[in-house]
Amino acid sequence: MSLIIARRPSVMLTGMVLMAMLFCAAGARAEESDPSIFTVSGFGTAGMAHSSEHRADYTNSPWYKPVGAGYNQNWSPDVDSRFGMQLDARFTEQFSAVVQAISQLRYDNTYKPTIEWANLKYQFTPDFDIRLGRIVMSTFLASDYRNVGYAMPWVRPPLEVYNIMPVSTNDGIDASYRSHFGDVTHTIQAFYGVDNLKSPGNAYHPAVSNNPARNSWGVFNTLEYGPTTLRLMYQHSNLSLDGVNAFFDQFKLFGAQGAALANRYGSYQTPVTFWGASASYDPGKWFVMGEFGTNKIEPSFMGEQRAGYVGGGYRAGDFTPYASYAKSKKLGNSSDPGLNLAFVNPFMRGYAAGLNAGLNGFLKPITGTTVTVGCRWDFMKNTDLKLQYEHISLDPGSSGLLINLQPGYRTGSSFNVISATVDWVF
Length: 426
Prior knowledge:
16-stranded antiparallel barrel
């Protein structure tokens, strides 16, 4: 059973106020014939992806997208294609704002734009600033620009790592402070706020449901020395998955043993704890990088997940061949006997057996390895072409990050993914 979640399309009150301020400022500047306060930029990716596994769908975002390459489409443009626009405004030397909207496949199978960034920033000193609004959290090295394909060497960042943390944005406040020790720059960033994800209906919860992440906070530490970047991060949230809980609530119909299973595997404002470490070295001609993270969501069916990757590439003129190796592992229960049918009313045993099967569907491990090789060609200004091959080997019993599993699909299989994208910025 797959879980698909998408960020809410509407902007929180702060974003709405920000938009109003930007438009008001735009009108004032237009009257002064001085449009320099605003900067408009954009980015996009046109891609096609093919998966050799035809009994399931491969996607770059199993939390957010309903379809992908494999089962629904032999070659899918929905895995990587997107278009984004960004409006930056600098009102004074200290006060600025940004709004970014992205159109890509979302949970309802449409490309309706969503707001990724919408925040106000005040720069108290050159090394200290505070932002208020919707902010993308700096969980990973490429978090700030993971939707901008042109900014990355590969088609998509290693999914084992970049899908390990479902909460990626914060509606609230963050602060950054930089200190300098000779040639070393140390940046500490802290945030606090909320997020509200939306999931589509399913057999257990037909209506679209809210999945709030509350009491979200975290700290990111970054050290930069020349071409070297090191980062440590910690995040915490309390997460509810209402669509999933609609399934686990049915266990409560079977008394104490059912309630115990629901409380153990449901997600009712469950603590989410993430630790991570990243490192990169990029002197210009070549680069290497690696990231590791562990995400613990307990008590919950998701349990504890660990993932990491190492990768690198070499820049030879307009061409950049690259490769990476990624691995993920789930700790804790990968199966559970569920309800003891001997203590279930005979008329309800079929129903209980179905719930047990569904429970073990949720508990399937998300484990395996991915070997990636590819090449980037910067064939014209601000535009690149990438070709990428991935071999994905799943551990026994695992369906990895695949969605829409069909009858006949075998867990623990291996398959290949071929991708081609054109990325641009303007």
